[in-house]
């Protein structure tokens, strides 16, 4: 047990180290090379004894733990009981505190009430004392003898000044000598104003300055200076001239000229201009939205221009705010719902412009349709390029009108200008965006998108004969309209939204609209190119004969071959002539319908399909020597036609095709040399072989041997 206690006291406890230390302390527990020989029996006996000691120690410790746990539980119960008693004591103390707080509040209320009562009694008494002193001082002034110390003591000059100021205010409240004297002074001022006697007007105004009648004097002056001032047809110009004239003389009459001039301007705005504006707008407010908006824009512009002229005058500290409030007071009832009137008018006007155009064409608009079925058709058309629904004969009509577009853009331009002038700065971006959405609705969707849908429906199937392809005309006009639309976006909308979050919203909407239009244009162009290739197929099928390349009655006489060879070099087949004429016509039409890189992109696509058509067409025939020469001449003419595309890749394709056609006429001994030439060396051998197989003499052992 002694060993066990010592061994357990070492920290931290590690079982392996504990066993090692136990073995080391046991006699005979060391290694065979130690001072004592290793004795396993003795070591086993020591282990058994030590385990028994550990069991006894464990029981002793367990009893000690149980005793401590019981003691802990007992103390916990006592502590919980003590806490409950403290909580009860705390609740009692809190209740006493609330009662004390209520009592203090009650006493404070009583004290405040008593203070109010004392103040109510003391204040009138102080006022009465003050009034008595002022009456005493006033009597001294009336008697002409100043006896009070406050007036005779030079050290009390501030108190004397305060008393004199109060007596001055009291004097103003006293009735004027008699009302008749006041009226005489006003009449004298009026007469002097009519006679233009500035000095007399100044004298009378100076007398009335310290009395309530002074404001009446100013009112008379303002009223009389407006007599005969509005004789022209332009009330705004009359008002500007009136204010300029008054500004020159008001300083010679009144001691506060800026106040008098400001009052005149306020009178002009609130009476003359407000009544004029109301008369001009109320008449057409409900009956004629177009005239109402024009009048509102014109009147507001002229009013703000007048305000700018008046900014030159001295009207006090904040003349900008003063004039802005006057303008707002006139127009607030009209500006509150301005944008509703604007958008309502713009929608009805745009709808009328479009309807008038379609009526002139005797055209009833088809329902394009929206929703699930239409979306499904659109996705199928984009992926398969198939015409969905019956083809519509548009008789060459694009249903796009530059005149209509100009009218819509002009109406929108005027709306943007009115929006800029009449909208509150905080509402300007939002109002401009609403106008922009109307433009998108009627120009882009109701007009351009409808024309594209109609144009797509008018494209015939690729196997139609003698089909008239008008979609390129739609493309040409749509490109022109896009440029006009983009110009108005940059010139008139961008300045209104450039510094607001609406900018990104407008740019995103514009991007979506253009992408939608471009997708339909791409679809229409692709289907139009298919129709062009289909027309070429019909020409080739109708005009190209098998005997063109392998005459059935070919004469084997050498001289006849030579004559035929010379003629072949100078001519090409009728099918080639007609195809090339058709292609040149379509190339010219594409160049006229598009601009920029779009021309090259479309011409490249047409050139690649044109090459594929001719390549596959040539693969259908068998060629004699003379027929091969004719094929070379045809391809040479096709290559000449391809030069009009001005697309290097297309020309390279036809150069290679021309080189392939040489395999139809070259002597068998030279086939390998020709195939290893610059233009054919990089081609797949299967392509070369497919052309050699078209030769009429391909199955001859000699030719097969040379090409193998």
TrEMBL record:
GO cellular component: a single term: exocyst
Domain Exocyst complex component Sec10 N-terminal: residue ranges: 40-148
UniProt keyword list: Coiled coil, Exocytosis, Transport
Pfam families: Sec10_HB, Sec10_N
Organism: Colobus angolensis palliatus
Family membership: Belongs to the SEC10 family.
Recorded coiled-coil stretches: 51-89
Name of the protein described by the UniProt record: Exocyst complex component 5
GO biological process, one term: Golgi to plasma membrane transport
Domain Exocyst complex component Sec10-like alpha-helical bundle: 160-707
């Amino acid at each position: 047990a002694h060993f066990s206690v010592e061994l357990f006291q070492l920290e931290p406890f590690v079982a392996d180290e504990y066993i090692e230390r136990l073995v080391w302390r046991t006699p005979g527990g060391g290694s065979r090379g130690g001072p004592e020989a290793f004795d396993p029996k003795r070591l086993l006996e020591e282990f058994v004894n030590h385990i028994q000691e550990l069991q006894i120690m464990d029981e002793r410790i367990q009893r000690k733990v149980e005793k401590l746990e019981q003691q802990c539980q007992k103390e916990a119960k006592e502590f919980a009981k003590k806490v409950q008693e403290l909580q009860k004591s705390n609740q009692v103390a809190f209740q006493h505190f609330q009662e004390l707080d209520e009592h203090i509040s009650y006493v404070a209320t009583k004290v405040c009430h008593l203070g109010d009562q004392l103040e109510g009694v003391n204040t009138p008494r102080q006022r009465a004392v003050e009034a008595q002193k002022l009456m005493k001082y006033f009597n001294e002034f009336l008697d002409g003898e100043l006896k009070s110390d406050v007036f005779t003591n030079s050290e009390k000059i501030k108190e004397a000044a305060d008393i004199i100021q109060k007596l001055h205010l009291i004097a103003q409240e006293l009735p004027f000598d008699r009302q008749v004297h006041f009226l005489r002074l006003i009449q004298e001022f009026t007469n002097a104003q009519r006679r233009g006697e500035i000095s007399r007007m100044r004298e009378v105004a100076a007398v009335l300055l310290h009395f309530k009648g002074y404001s009446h004097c100013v009112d008379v002056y303002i009223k009389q200076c407006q007599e005969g001032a509005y004789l022209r047809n332009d009330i705004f110009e009359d008002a500007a001239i009136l204010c300029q004239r008054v500004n020159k003389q008001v300083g010679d009459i009144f001691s506060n000229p800026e106040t008098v001039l400001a009052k005149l301007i306020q009178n002009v705005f609130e009476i003359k201009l407000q009544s004029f504006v109301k008369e001009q707008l109320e008449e057409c407010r409900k009956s004629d939205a177009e005239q109402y908006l024009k009048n509102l824009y014109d009147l507001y512009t002229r009013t703000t221009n007048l305000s700018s002229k008046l900014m030159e005058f001295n009207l006090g500290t904040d003349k900008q705010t003063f004039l802005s409030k006057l303008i707002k007071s006139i127009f607030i009832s009209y500006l509150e719902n301005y944008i509703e009137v604007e958008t309502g008018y713009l929608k009805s006007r745009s709808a009328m412009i479009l309807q008038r155009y379609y009526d002139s064409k005797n055209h009833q608009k088809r329902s394009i349709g929206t929703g699930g079925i239409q979306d499904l058709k659109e996705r199928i058309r984009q992926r398969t390029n198939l015409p969905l629904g019956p083809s519509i004969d548009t008789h060459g009509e694009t249903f796009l009108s530059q005149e209509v577009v100009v009218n819509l853009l002009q109406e929108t331009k005027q709306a943007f200008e009115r929006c800029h002038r009449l909208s509150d700065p905080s509402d300007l971006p939002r109002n401009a965006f609403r106008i922009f959405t109307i433009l998108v609705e009627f120009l882009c969707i109701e007009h351009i998108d409808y024309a594209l849908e109609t144009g797509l429906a008018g494209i015939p199937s690729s196997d139609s004969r003698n089909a008239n392809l008008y979609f390129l005309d739609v493309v040409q006009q749509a490109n022109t309209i896009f440029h006009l639309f983009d110009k108005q976006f940059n010139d008139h909308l961008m300045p209104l939204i450039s510094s607001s979050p609406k900018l990104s919203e407008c740019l995103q909407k514009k991007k979506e609209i253009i992408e939608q239009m471009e997708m339909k244009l791409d679809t229409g162009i692709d289907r139009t190119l298919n129709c062009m290739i289909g027309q070429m197929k019909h020409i080739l099928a109708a005009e190209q004969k098998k005997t063109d390349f392998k005459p059935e009655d070919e004469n084997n006489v050498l001289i006849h071959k030579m004559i035929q060879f010379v003629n072949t070099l100078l001519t090409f087949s009728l099918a080639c002539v007609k195809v090339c004429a058709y292609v040149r016509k379509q190339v010219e039409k594409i160049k006229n319908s598009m601009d920029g890189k779009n021309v090259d992109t479309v011409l490249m696509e047409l050139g690649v399909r044109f090459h594929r058509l001719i390549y596959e067409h040539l693969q259908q025939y068998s060629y004699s020597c003379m027929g091969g020469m004719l094929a070379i001449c045809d391809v040479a003419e096709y290559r000449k036609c391809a030069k009009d595309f001005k697309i290097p890749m297309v020309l390279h394709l036809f150069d290679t095709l021309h080189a392939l056609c040489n395999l139809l006429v070259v002597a068998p001994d030279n086939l390998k040399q020709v195939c290893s030439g610059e233009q054919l060396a990089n081609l797949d051998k299967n392509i070369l072989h497919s052309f050699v197989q078209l030769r009429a003499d391909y199955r001859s052992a000699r030719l097969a041997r040379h090409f193998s």
